[in-house]
Write a structure and sequence with these properties.
heterotrimer, A mainly alpha, B mainly alpha, C alpha/beta, A: mainly alpha, MetI-like fold, 2 domains, 13 helices, 0% strand, globular, B: mainly alpha, elongated
Chain lengths: 327, 304, 681
Amino acid sequence: MAGFLARRLLNYVVLVIVAASLAYMLAAMALDPRSNYADRTPKPPPAVVDAQLTALNLNDKTPLLQRYAVWAGGVLRGDLGMTVAGSPVGEDIKRRMGVTFRLVILGLLFGSLLGVLTGALAAVRQYGWFDRLSTGLSFLVLAVPVVVLANMLILLAGWANEHLFGRQVLLVSGEYSAGLDAGLWAQVVDRLQHLILPTVSLSVGLIAVFSRYQRNMMLDVLGADFVRTARAKGLSKRRALTRHALRTAMIPVVTYFAFTFGALLTGATFTEKIFGWHGLGEQLINSIFGNDVNTVAAISLLAAVAVLCAALAADLLHAALDPRVRS
Amino acid sequence: MTLSEEELAEELTEGPPPAVPSRARVVAGRFFRSAQGRVGFTVLALMFLLAFAGPLFSPWTYTDKDFTAFMQPPSARHWFGTLQTGSDVFAVTLRGMQKSLVVGLLAALVSTALAAVVGAFAGYFLGWTDRALSWVTDLLLVLPAFLILAILSPLFGPGQWPLFVVMLALFLWMVTSKIVRGMTVSLKEREFIQAARYMGVPPVRIIFRHVLPNLSSLLIVDATLNVSSAILTETSLSYFGFGIQPPDVSFGTLIADGSKTAIYAPWTFWFVAGLLVVTVLAVNLVGDALRDAFDPSSSRKGPR
Amino acid sequence: MNPGLPEGAAPGPVLEVSDLHVSFGGVRAVRGVSYSVRPGEVLGIVGESGSGKSVTTAAVMGLLPPGARVTGSVRLHGKELIGAPERVLNSFRGKSVSMVFQDPLSALTPVYRVGDQIAEAVRVHQRVSKETALVKALELLELVGIPRPAERALAFPHEFSGGMRQRVVIAMAIANDPDVIICDEPTTALDVTIQAQVLEVLKRAQAKTGAAIIMITHDLGVVAGFADRVLVMYAGRPVEVGGVDDIYYRARMPYTVGLLGSVPRVDRGGRQPLTPIEGNPPSPAALPPGCPFAPRCPMRIEACDEREPPLFEVGDGHRAACVRWQEVRPGPPAPPGGGPGPLRVRGARTVLAVRHLVKDYPLVKGAVFKRRVGTVQAVAGVSFDLRQGETLGLVGESGSGKTTTLTQILELTPPQEGDIVVLGHDIARLSRAERAEIRRDMQVVFQDPLASLDPRMTVHDILAEPLRTHGRRDPGRRVAELLALVGLDPSHAARYPQDFSGGQRQRIGIARALALEPRLLVLDEPVSALDVSIQAGVINLLDSLKARLGLSYLFVAHDLGVVRYIADRVAVMYLGRIAEIGHVEAVYDRPAHPYTQALLSAIPLPDPVRERSRERILLEGDLPSPANPPTGCRFRTRCPKFRHELTDGERGLCVRIEPEVRPLGADQGAACHYADKREVV
């Protein structure tokens, strides 16, 4: 088992390396840091620009492979290079990582738990009112892209604050109110107020996806022979469903988890950008516009690592849930 | 055997054409019997009609600017109101819808075709072919599509949208391809494929004659659902300025502009957002109804 | 309507079903079933697929899928169950009435330990602690004959073989000392030697609990040996009910007679053709107006089409639904087994020769965490040959290596070890042209007639594919010819395989195999997916085609009865090797290998008197893992001779040396050091 895990890990590491290298090459080819200097007044002399770009390992006159070698060498030593502004990429990213992962993990927890629950309930009463309602809602939600959903939430929150609460309950910008000088409790409440909408916008889609998937898996299992055996033993329908059907139907859903993680990261990017959270996603979008090759590459590397960690976690979870995989 | 045989033969000779309905007709029949299918199809057809025939009825084109009306709410003159620039929201929205629909359709077709071929080859040949193709699939799955497309966005200059379609398709096929691969592996064990092999039919011909036609229901459903994910991806990319570039407009660019003014000029946001949601919803409904129509056992788990 | 069966004197019936109807959205699957069982009685319910026998029991258990409409009455100890509240049903399910299902592989929840699943069955109905329930579970496992129960209770279902899983299901069924055990095809998915074991366990379970058993099956042999009374169902209705001897020896319904006549039997040599029932069972959605069997009945008269005949009282406790029951006569009595028939002189030309064939597979474990844990020797040195015009039956249970042998021949890739010579060409050294030639001259017919035909192609395209592949243009005429050859209407070429019945589909499969006028036909279980009454027609067709077209057949099957009918020679495989090979009559009448003897004796005969008086050689345990076969003789771990007859000195040879096939007669050979011919059927 250990040897096997090591092989699997190695495979993942290779994938991460290739993926990150690919991302670097693409970024280095597609982005043009030199253009950042074009709009400056006074226009800096070309030699100065060249020198600066070379110092940052961004000079497009240096062959791509050479720049790549410098970057890769740095990454291996734990140095992610410099931003276009000349500060180390690593520091900024470390700070933003916490912001992004807080959002992603909360969204994931809410999304998958509520989704699985909804799907299971819908499957048990197939064609009941709950099934129809959840099916209808998830169809609707799946038709709304995160960017639209987030904007709708902002508009709705504005309306609700004004007409329902009469004060600012749902806060739509940033992670916390800057300069809020209050006790610990007030700080926590403030953070929660900021957290609600982004988490909702991130997890609603996930709930829809997971509930559909769990419902289908559950329906597959409901007709299975072993559920009939459980009923024939004298178990009530509810017990047969929760103990035998739900438990077994969870297994494929867990593997599905790995697939959704990439989409979740993308969703987090949109959410951050729209709600003004200073996370990795926002930085990614900013750095693409800023032609910041090294930051883009570093974030891609992190994204690849995160996706593969999710895949590995899914594998382990699968093994934990399914004895057929373990032995 | 004889008795029923004769009865069947009688049936055949009585009616002029053979009394066996074709599969396409059966599927179409099931599709249109479901409320979901009917609603989805009707709405989608209306959306297409609106996008492509609608502009004919509007006095404004999407490039026209009415310098007498900036940021005006909907009126008889401007059905959906106007933008800050004086553009007619109705005309601009329909133009964006055209672009989004075309981009979505093309990207879905390309990606499904790619998924079918890659998945079927990997699943049929297994061994090294499979390992190489699966590795590429995994690699593309590791990187969120949005990231790569965003990085490549400087390449999609104005008027370069076909390149954008290709790139979009390039990041939509992986999951389908994995499903196709899995199904091919099990189809390959099916006896009719073995029969063809033992008959001496060459592998590539088996893939195109036996494997892919038998996955056609999956592929059709998938292509349909890919239309919606292509539209959604396009919207998100364009929203951040990574997709369709001005002067072209699409749902994404319109929503990005509209969301900035949505609070005080709701018409700039809600019309386009609403049309987008309705379009994608209709596509999804069609896809789901198609899935049920192809495989009645998938949802109606009644007695067999 | 139909009054219940006559009630015996002493104990009243435990379960009484009367006038049960079940319909699914207008389709009437069960149309008036009545029966009752007394404590300790075994009622056999026999019928082909679609006869409504399984739906009947699901209705009794209250486990029908939602959309089903049930009317009639099911009384357990006089208490009505139809329409009873769910809570009441839950309290009797698994306690008073329990059930054993057909497919043991999927009947257990894969994620829970076997012991816990049995303990759960105990705890649903008895207020005992977890520990007590587990102790009870161990006792039950012991009772159903699972070795080392304390250890096996901790295993997961996938770690059990099919036979062992069925034992677990039986253990669950008897956990609460039920009054009625319903067995729905409990041994259909199992190999014949395992079937014998499981039936033995069921008998033991019955003796322990004193329960009545309702045995649903399509296998007339199982019923003959097991049931006291038999109910024959056709098109959702009982057509004949009676004591087991009445049904088998004094059948009064032409369907029962036809069914009994179409069973290929291991105890009948001499190659008389089987008598199939014409036509196909009617679809429950489109029943004929009168007697549903009339369209297939050899004794049909006009009155049959007028209305459905009721069950006539034809004897003491014997009823049959036929207006002409007085004229119905059971089939001719079984001719005596007799000595081996005249040995035919074998043809001179060899069409297929396999010598010392070996095939290993890597043994991979785990679905996600795949890793190689060993090597399975699926085929370990198999040799046989097949001459022109001959049929060789290759028989064996699952895991015997017969399918691997077949695949090796069909793949035309060089074998790992040994030689395969097809039609004079060694397949290790094939040129392109030779390969194409073999692909033309050797054709295959598969087991599942639906799976072997591409559902997206019309019958015409299916039959034309081999012709086009081998460069024949304009296949239209040949397609019509082929359809006529296999007894189908050529005008049906435009239809899809789904529009045909199982038997007809298999005929299409045979027609496709014959398209290129092959010389060698490989038949992989060609009739095992078909109902008995249909199967006989296909066997007869294959037999006549062979004679007409001068074909040679390699016929792989697990059903030894079928093989006796069609084959000239038979090879019995066990764990990757041939145990016995020879002329059919010789091997069946006087098998020499202990495995062949056990195999033949395990097959239930559709003849109650003989079946009950037979001495059965029961094999113990499961097939050993092919990844780790026993040293010396592979059969010795289960060999009754090795266990009970040989001395320690004699056993040494079995442990040390793997026996090769030795000739024992004109055309018979067995791979046993102590081969000894014996009559077993």
